[in-house]
Structures are given as C-alpha cells and as structure tokens.
Amino acid sequence: MKILHSVMVIGVAMISTSALAMEASAPTKPGDQAEAWLNVQASGALASSNPQAAKTIQRDKAAERLMKTYDFPIKESYYGDNFTPGQ
C-alpha cells in the first residue's frame, strides 16, 4: 500500500511538472498556437503510421458533392441581406 501511495505521489508530481513546463512555453501572442498546429500538420510530425486511402466510392461521392455546389448561382451582392436562417 505504501508503494502504491509513493507511485501515485511521484505520478502527480510528474504531471504537475509537465503542466508547468507547458504553461511556461505557452504562446504569448494571438495566433501562435494556430501557427504551431499548422506547422505540425505541414511537417507531418504527427502523421499516422497507418495511412488510409479513400475508397473509389468515397472519392466519387465527394466529387459529386463538390459538383452539386455549382448548381446554385452566387449572388452579385449580399448588401441588404439580413442573414436570418430559413430565407
């Protein structure tokens, strides 16, 4: 029981230490965190080691949804619209 208590105390200490380290290195300007996430995505540092390709049917459905967006004309101007839902 005493060993379990010691392990728990050490675990809590390690977690709080890592939390303090994260706070110390926290972004200071707006947008820093977003920039960091974009850099992680671009570098592929956290990419899956198990790449998953889309199936043909999934690609076809996605292309179909994209093409459907061209069925509706884009207004010349949104000036004066009240942007309420359902209109």
From TrEMBL:
Alphabetic keyword roster: Signal
Record-linked Pfam families: DUF3613
UniProt entry tagged with the keyword Signal: yes
Signal peptide extent: 1-21
Protein name: Uncharacterized protein DUF3613
